[in-house]
């Protein structure tokens, strides 16, 4: 069972697939990037805010940037109860944002 939603409605760190795909990704609101400079020091690169990131669930080196927050992704559920719980979270999130 799955729900296909615009990615801006899907909470951070939710496991998703592309609407017709099967490869699992973790949807992230931010994604820290690190590299090692000439002196082997760890350098963190700040990524742009207002984007979403798809990180392959089984391979952190596979990262895609989503600039169009209306892009649809699928959230999969094992049971109908899990899906209803997820929808309740979305409603709570929407109510919280509307009360600001």
Question: Can you walk me through this structure?
Answer:
- With 100 residues, this protein is of the alpha+beta class.
- The protein has one domain (2-98).
- It has 1 helix and 8 strands, in the order ββββββββα.
- It has one helix at 80-98, and strands at 2-6, 14-16, 25-28, 33-36, 42-45, 52-56, 63-66, 72-76.
- It has a 4-stranded antiparallel beta sheet, with no helix packed on it.
- A hairpin with a 5-residue loop joins strand 4 (33-36) and strand 5 (42-45).
- It starts with a strand and ends with a helix.
- The mean pLDDT is 88.
Helix-strand layout with pairing:
Layout lengths: L1 E5 L7 E3 L8 E4 L4 E4 L5 E4 L6 E5 L6 E4 L5 E5 L3 H19 L2
Antiparallel strand pairs: 1-8, 2-3, 3-6, 4-5, 6-7
Beta-strand percent range: 25-35%
Helix content: 10-25%
Question: What is the CA-based Rg, rounded?
Answer: 16 Å
The coarse overall form would be: globular
| The number of domains | 1
Query: Strand sequence of the main sheet, in spatial order?
Result: 2-3-6-7
Spatial separation of the terminal alpha carbons:
33 Å
Mean of residue pLDDT values: 88
Largest sheet: 4 strands, antiparallel
Count of helix runs: 1
Tell me the total number of β-strands: 8
Low-confidence stretches: none
Keywords:
19% helix; 1 helix; globular; alpha+beta; 100 residues
How would you sum up this structure in a few lines?
The chain is α+β, with helices and mostly antiparallel strands and 100 residues long. Helices cover 19% and strands 34% of the residues.
